[in-house]
Amino acid sequence: MHGLHSIYTCTFTIPLLCTLYIYTAAQIWTLARNLHVTIGDLIPEGDIYWDTFLTLLDILDICMAHVVSNDMAAHLNLLIHDHHEAYREIYPDKPLLPKQHYMVHYPDWMKKVSTYLIYIYIIYVRYTLLHPCRPEHIDI
Question: Which pTM does this prediction carry?
Answer without folding.
Answer: 0.65
